[in-house]
Design goal:
With about 220 residues, the protein is α/β, with parallel strands linked by helices. Helix content is about 45%, strand content about 15%. The chain contains 8 helices and 6 strands, in the order E-H-E-H-E-H-H-E-H-E-H-H-E-H. The protein has a 6-stranded mixed beta sheet. Helix 5 links the parallel strand 4 and strand 5. The termini are far apart.
Amino acid sequence: MASGLSRTSVSRSVALGLHAPAEEVKAAMVSRPVDYDEDDVAGRTARYEYDVFINHRGADTKRNVARLLYDRLQQLTGGGVRSFLDNMSMRPGDRLEDCLDAAIRECRVGVAIFSPRYFESDFCLRELAALVEARKTIIPIFYDIKPSDLLLPEAVVESNAHAPRDVERFRRALREVKYTVGLVHDSATGDLAELVSVAAHAVYQRIEEMRSAQSQQMIVSRL
């Protein structure tokens, strides 16, 4: 990240290992060229319908950082990155929960955009918990909110709408992301274009690392 980023800052929280790169394959194992049928090997490796799932509170960020990040990833890669953003990726007649569950299950990376009204959304909390439980790499963006603010509000805890098990899932997910390195942005003083650019490059780098690791696994599986 460039040293001149004065407005969009990186959260220096302790990483929990979600972003650790895949284990490198020993050089000796790939030292000779191998011919393989990619379709055949793909059946034994993870399948990804989407590269990134954008978890966000629409009332705060759908018309700014979430949509701009979606568009920037498309521009940056010429359409090579498949992003899931609810209003861009679903069609009339789709079952909401089924689409969200499948997109989370079949994504490589999650982007969680935290904002002041994030905790008011049951969908936001459930999506975050599902991403953490699926052990997805998560890149947090703290938009007008600080990592220390990631506490489940008492109104959610005491609400009859959530079973105790779900409350604990939400708390566990928030704790995990709270201690993951992310981007912090203040909309009053920050540069939104800079935030989107830095976030898009961070997401793309993670995706490329995972694609490279998967390609090596496909080669090794044929040896």
